[in-house]
Amino acid sequence: MGELGFSSSSSFTTFRFADFVVVLCLVLNAVVICNGGKTSSFVRKVEKTIDMPLDSDVFQVPPGYNAPQQVHITQGDHVGEAVIVSWVTVDEPGSNTVLYWSENSNKKKKAEGKFNTYKFYNYTSGYIHHCTIRNLEFNTKYYYVVGIGHTERKFWFTTPPEVGIDVPYTFGLIGDLGQSFDSNRTLTHYEMNGQKGQAVLFVGDLSYADNYPNHDNVRWDTWARFVERSVAYQPWIWTAGNHEIDFAPEIGETKPFKPFLHRYHVPYKASESTSPLWYSIKRASAYIIILSSYSAYGKYTPQYQWLENELPKVNRSETPWLIVLMHSPWYNSYNYHYMEGETMRVMYEPWFVKYSVDVVFAGHVHAYERSERVSNIAYNVINGLCTPVKDQSAPVYITIGDGGNLEGLANNMTEPQPPYSAYREASFGHAMFDIKNRTHAYYSWHRNQDGYAVEADTVWFFNRYWRQMVDSTN
Ligand SMILES: *[C@@H]1O[C@H](CO)[C@@H](O)[C@H](O)[C@H]1NC(C)=O
Ligand SMILES: *[C@@H]1O[C@H](CO)[C@@H](O)[C@H](O)[C@H]1NC(C)=O
Ligand SMILES: *[C@@H]1O[C@H](CO)[C@@H](O)[C@H](O)[C@H]1NC(C)=O
Ligand SMILES: *[C@@H]1O[C@H](CO)[C@@H](O)[C@H](O)[C@H]1NC(C)=O
Ligand SMILES: *[C@@H]1O[C@H](CO)[C@@H](O)[C@H](O)[C@H]1NC(C)=O
Ligand SMILES: [Fe+2]
Fold first, then answer.
1. What's the pLDDT at 48?
2. 337 among known catalytic residues
3. Which of 147, 433, 447, 448 is an S-S bond match for 171, by CB 3.0 to 4.6 Å?
4. Ligand 5 centre distance from Cα of residue 73 (Å)
C-alpha cells in the first residue's frame, strides 16, 4: 500500500481498489460501481433484530443490599486528568463517595459526588450518583470502589497519556447501539478486537427506551447494566442522538433530553460550553468536538457561537487530530434519514474545511458508510453548484450507526452510489481509529458477521494539518 496513494482493503478484495473498479466496470459494465465508490457485495443474513428480554444475563442486577449498578465513566475535564464516575443505587441513596487509588500506591483517596432522581411517566428512577475524581496522574491505572457502607464494587481504568503531538491512542467507535442481541454482538466484537480500544467515541442513540410504551425508562436501566462491562473500565464519550430527546409534552415534559441528562454527565463546562449537549475534550493527540444535531445550531444560537469560538482554539501542534462527533450524518447515501443533516451541513461545513477537520463520525443511519474527502461549500441557492467536489481540506465523513439496535438495518441505498460515497455496507459492526503519531492514523471497520480479527474496510488517514496528502480513494 503506497504512502501517497490511497490504501483501502476489504476481506473480499486483495488487489488494489483501482484495479478492482476497472476490472468490474469492464466485466460487468457496473454503472453503480463506476459512478461512485464501492457498495459491498456482502449481504447479511436477514433476521429480525429484537431486544434481549428483561431476564437476560447482561441485564442482571448485581447481588447485595443497595449494590451499585449501571457503573460508567467518562472524561471529567478538558485534558484527561479527571474522570466522572456514575452509578445507580435502588434501595436507598447510600454513599456518594468514590474510593480510589493508583496501582503504584496504597494511599486511598476519596471523592464526594452527588445524586439525583427523576420521574418520567409512571417511572421513578433510582438514585443516580455522579462523582468527579480530579488531579489524576496521566497514563496510570487506577482502582475505584463505589457502594461504600453497603455493597462495595471495585473497578479500574487507565488514564490517558498527557496531551501531546505524537501520542498514540486508540479510539473505538460505536453508534446507535440499543440492547438487542445484535447490540450484544457489536459490544463483544469491540471488546475482542485485538487493536484494544482505550476509549469509545459514542455517536448517539443509547438505549432506545423511547421505542417502548411511555418510553419505558426501565430500558435505560437495563441498557446501562448491559454496557457496564465496558464503560465501567474505559470512558465512553457521549453524543446525544434523537433517541435521547424523550420529548413528552403530553405529560408536561417540555424540556427534551431529561433521562439522558440525568444519567450521563459530561465535562462541558471545561470547554466553556453552556450545555452538556455540545462540548469538547482533548485526549492524547486528539481534539474531539461533540455537537448536538437536535439542539439549535443556526446563527446566533448558543451552539453556533460556541463552535465559532471553539475551532480557532484548536492548536494542531498540541493536538494534531481534529475529530468531530455528531448524530445525524451530513453525507449519507442511504434512503434513510436522507438529507436530515443538510441544514447543519449548510451552517458549519465551511468551518470544517477552513479548520481542516480530519474526520467526522456520525450515526443515525443503521448501516456503515465512508465518504471521500468532499466539500459542498461552493453551493448557494442561486449558483447551482450543488454537487459535492473532492477537497483535500475537507473531512472524511463516516456513518457508524450500525451498533445493532431493535429498529434493524438500513439496507435501502440510493442508486447509483454517488461519487462522494467511498464504501457502504448494510451490516452491523464497530470501528477503530488508531492514532500512530501526528501524521498517521489507521482506521478499520469490523462487521459482526466476521471473526474478531477481520477488517472489512480500512484506510490510512493522513493528518490534514501535518501531512497534506491524498488519503482517499481518488
Ligand atoms: C407503568 O405503566 C405501564 C403501562 O400501564 C405498566 O405496565 C407498568 O407496570 C407501570 N410501571 C410502574 C412502575 O407503575
Ligand atoms: C451477550 O454476550 C456475552 C459475551 O459474548 C455473552 O456471555 C452473553 O451470554 C450474551 N447475552 C445475550 C443475552 O446474548
Ligand atoms: C500550541 O501548542 C504548542 C505545543 O504545546 C505550544 O508550544 C504553542 O505555544 C501553542 N500555540 C499557541 C498559539 O498556544
Ligand atoms: C427504497 O427507498 C425508496 C426511496 O424512499 C423507495 O421509493 C423504495 O420503494 C424503497 N425500496 C424498498 C425495497 O423499500
Ligand atoms: C508515523 O506512523 C507511521 C505509521 O506507523 C510510520 O510509517 C511513520 O514513520 C511514523 N512517523 C514518524 C515520524 O515516526
Ligand atoms: Fe438516530
1. 78
2. yes
3. 433
4. 32
